[in-house]
Amino acid sequence: MAARISYDEVEIGTELPARSFPVTRADLVRYAGASGDFNPIHWNEKFAKEVGLPDVIAHGMFTMAEAGRVVTDWVGDPGAVAEYGVRFTRPVVVPDDDTGAVIEVTAKVAAKDDEHRTVRVDLVVKSEGKKVLGMSRAVVRLA
């Protein structure tokens, strides 16, 4: 699979399509099974509150992965992502209702490197209007 975006057609300031990702408790249970992370803060409301959290929270890596989908969907080839990193700044609280939570992601090209034909994409990741990931950046290699 090759990146569907060409280096020459991307400019600094190019905005990637914004996305919203719903998160339910069922999603957290499925992620726990896939990742092996069965920490009770991700599924047991009583335990989460006993350790000082407002409620069950999404796995940090789940949140990071959902945000990263904005970049991989845009470029068309997950293998084009050379680097991806974030800081976990605030948890995504997932209530036990029919709605759950929503992770909202916007992103734009912040820098270009002509020598390596890469672009740096900066992401803004929020839930309930508050930033949940900081320093969220991906470096994407383009042809």
Explain what the structure shows.
- This protein has 143 residues and is of the alpha+beta class.
- The protein is 23% helix and 36% strand.
- The protein contains three helices and five strands; from the N terminus they run E-H-H-H-E-E-E-E.
- It has helices at residues 25-35, 45-50, 60-75; strands spanning 15-23, 81-88, 101-113, 118-127, 130-141.
- Strands 1-3-4-5-2 form a five-stranded antiparallel β-sheet.
- Strand 4 (118-127) and strand 5 form a beta hairpin.
- The model has no long low-confidence stretch (mean pLDDT 97).
Describe the protein's topology.
Layout: E1 15-23, H1 25-35, H2 45-50, H3 60-75, E2 81-88, E3 101-113, E4 118-127, E5 130-141
Antiparallel strand pairs: 1-3, 2-5, 3-4, 4-5
Give a nutshell description of this structure:
The protein is α+β, with helices and mostly antiparallel strands and 143 residues long.
The helix content, as a percent range, equals: 10-25%
> Strand order, biggest sheet?
1-3-4-5-2
Q: Calculate the mean pLDDT score and round it.
A: 97
User: What structural class do helix, strand and pairing data support?
Assistant: alpha+beta
SSE string: EHHHEEEE
- Tally the helices: 3
Distance between the termini: 12 Å
- As a percent range, the share of strand residues is 35-45%
* Model regions low in confidence, pLDDT < 50 over at least 5 residues: none
Number of strands: 5
Q: Which shape, going by the Cα principal axes?
A: elongated
Radius of gyration, whole Å: 17 Å
The largest pleated sheet is described as:
5 strands, antiparallel
